[in-house]
Specification:
It is built from nine helices and no strands. By secondary structure, the chain is mainly α.
Length: 171
Amino acid sequence: NLWTSSFVLVAGGWSLLLLAAFHAVGLGVVAAKCFNALCLGAAALLAAHLARRIGGPAAAVLAALACAVYPLFPYTAATLFPQTLGTVLLLGSVVAAVHTREAFLTGEKSRALRLAAVSGLLISLLVLAVPSFAAPMGLVVLWLLLTTKKAGLPVLGALVGTAILLPAIWA
């Protein structure tokens, strides 16, 4: 039963909302575990994307493998802890922030604003899913601020504005 699983005892707000959505459409624990497995695969792909940008194709393969086989990740995916969803949201927001910076630095201001909003929305979902994962996102904002200077303030505004949107509504 979805509601008597050990997951419900440790899950936070967003995770319970996600489980309620699965339950509302008649899906149970198996579907939630499949969703977590998809999140783990997405996290491995996002880690590979970041690693490829930093260290090339070999780094991408190593990052994907490390993400897929690091013992905590498959465990949290199989036991329905929200950390798997949190990991994919964290990596997704960092990838969007990296692309935001590139778009800004190449003069694509409207694309940078859209990507910043995507990154902020992912951070917003992250805060709801696993609040403790949100703390490192301040470093992403600081990195963007330091690398885009004052000219990047509208982009940072879009990121931070969307990042606080859902938690503000939820509270």
